[in-house]
Amino acid sequence: MSETARKAPSVPDPNRWRALAFISIAQLMVILDATIVNIALPSAQQDLGISDGNRQWVITAYALAFGGLLLFGGRIADLWGRKRAFVIGLVGFGAASALGGAATNEAMMYSSRALQGVFGALLAPAALSLLSVTFTDAKERARAFGVYSAISGAGGAVGLILGGVLTEYLDWRWTFFVNIPFAAIAAAGAYFVISEPEGGRNRSPLDIPGVILSALGLVALVYGFTRAESDGWSDSTTLGLFVASAVLLLAFVITEAKVKAPLLPLRVVTERNRGGAFLSFGLANIAIYGLFLFLTYYLQIVKGYSPIKTGFAFLPLVVGTTIGATQIGTRLTPRVPARLLMGPGFLVAAAGMFLLTQLEVGSSYAGLLLPTLLIVGIGLGTAFMPAMSVATHGVESRDAGAASAMVNTSQQLGGAIGTALLNTIAASAMASYITDHIATAATKPQQQLVQLQGMVHGYANAAWVAVGIVAGAAVIALALINVGRPKADSSTGEGPEAQVPVIAH
């Protein structure tokens, strides 16, 4: 083949925009599931007779399976083909959701949630890697990742809204059944519309030691943070899980450096731009999941909102994220270096979270929470769009699944860490406040007021930590990411010359 033919740009897939629609539906379904079930949990717990001590497993079973198998799912997508993995993941996720909706006891519920996690771990990396290899033109890639990032950033808030509507007006089972049409439409569309570029599979033998070490290490890490939230950071089991996770993940890194066909090629994470994107994205998710948790409690317990009203209260976050990703990020990504979007975007989000440090029992929604959610959404939407693109740009086609899995792993671990860490900080500050002020409360109403004030004081303290974390994400993005404006004819191919990012000097 001549040099000219070898370097000729590939012809864009004529169905790529329809493919984006079905990939987006699948991503929305996965992101929704992270929060939609939380709203329905009290009703499901009562119907199925799940004890207070065991109800956490409705959430934990999904988190452990999803977080522990993401790297494996990404490698399977590279091995089987992303389209095949995508369709299988959708069908399996839909079937697991049907099982959850039809659950008659807690064993069926836990099993369905674990299965959702297994198939989600196959589906999520396949979706992002399909997006990465389908859109190679710089401007089109920016638009596609803008849509995908808006869904990823706002999907959790949409889940709160939809969960509240379904639980209040139908039944908690519909928070599971609603996934079935999503999965069916996306699977049918993917089967008939999506076409995967030739020669992009990684047919190397499966790295079994890497699969085992990564799965056990990530499960121990996620479960450790789950235990820390419920049993405290000094609990012996919690500490044992963190130690076990550190040992297993260190062994995983050593193994990946030595085997010929690693599950996670270290070149995927050691390249400074992708490494910076993974790290900053994960840190931002620590803060955003903590935000979901605290504001949900604040609106329902302190302000007395119903589940559906609480869900709709998050709409400004959805609007802000959509504006940031599709209007700011998409329009500027082809024109400015990624760090000049990610850094300022994270700083804007940190400024929005700073407003929460002023939270009080009597704070008004319109005066404080609405601008907070809108500003945070705009900042995160602006930053997430280039972060996801940088995390998968320039990676060899055979490693697209692994890079995509790392994006999802950053999000999943960020959520687990944020929920546990910020909840612990809030609980500690709340306990100290109540201890210091309860003696001055002579009547029961005064004691109840001190309890609420202590709760809000705890949230405000946790908000300070969230501000620092997101500011740290901005510093990392500005310091590590040096990829410049994408070339107008940039593409993701298999030759090394197609993988070199444009460096801003």
From TrEMBL:
<keyword id="KW-0813">Transport</keyword>
<dbReference type="InterPro" id="IPR004638">
    <property type="entry name" value="EmrB-like"/>
</dbReference>
<keyword id="KW-1003">Cell membrane</keyword>
<keyword id="KW-0046">Antibiotic resistance</keyword>
<feature type="transmembrane region" description="Helical">
    <location>
        <begin position="56"/>
        <end position="73"/>
    </location>
</feature>
<dbReference type="InterPro" id="IPR005829">
    <property type="entry name" value="Sugar_transporter_CS"/>
</dbReference>
<keyword id="KW-1133">Transmembrane helix</keyword>
<feature type="transmembrane region" description="Helical">
    <location>
        <begin position="413"/>
        <end position="434"/>
    </location>
</feature>
<keyword id="KW-0472">Membrane</keyword>
<feature type="transmembrane region" description="Helical">
    <location>
        <begin position="462"/>
        <end position="481"/>
    </location>
</feature>
<feature type="transmembrane region" description="Helical">
    <location>
        <begin position="311"/>
        <end position="328"/>
    </location>
</feature>
<feature type="transmembrane region" description="Helical">
    <location>
        <begin position="85"/>
        <end position="103"/>
    </location>
</feature>
<protein>
    <submittedName>
        <fullName>MFS transporter</fullName>
    </submittedName>
</protein>
<feature type="transmembrane region" description="Helical">
    <location>
        <begin position="115"/>
        <end position="133"/>
    </location>
</feature>
<dbReference type="InterPro" id="IPR011701">
    <property type="entry name" value="MFS"/>
</dbReference>
<feature type="transmembrane region" description="Helical">
    <location>
        <begin position="206"/>
        <end position="225"/>
    </location>
</feature>
<feature type="transmembrane region" description="Helical">
    <location>
        <begin position="172"/>
        <end position="194"/>
    </location>
</feature>
<dbReference type="Pfam" id="PF07690">
    <property type="entry name" value="MFS_1"/>
</dbReference>
<feature type="transmembrane region" description="Helical">
    <location>
        <begin position="340"/>
        <end position="359"/>
    </location>
</feature>
<feature type="transmembrane region" description="Helical">
    <location>
        <begin position="20"/>
        <end position="41"/>
    </location>
</feature>
<keyword id="KW-0812">Transmembrane</keyword>
<dbReference type="InterPro" id="IPR020846">
    <property type="entry name" value="MFS_dom"/>
</dbReference>
<feature type="transmembrane region" description="Helical">
    <location>
        <begin position="276"/>
        <end position="299"/>
    </location>
</feature>
<feature type="transmembrane region" description="Helical">
    <location>
        <begin position="145"/>
        <end position="166"/>
    </location>
</feature>
<feature type="transmembrane region" description="Helical">
    <location>
        <begin position="365"/>
        <end position="392"/>
    </location>
</feature>
<feature type="domain" description="Major facilitator superfamily (MFS) profile">
    <location>
        <begin position="19"/>
        <end position="489"/>
    </location>
</feature>
<dbReference type="InterPro" id="IPR036259">
    <property type="entry name" value="MFS_trans_sf"/>
</dbReference>
<feature type="transmembrane region" description="Helical">
    <location>
        <begin position="237"/>
        <end position="255"/>
    </location>
</feature>
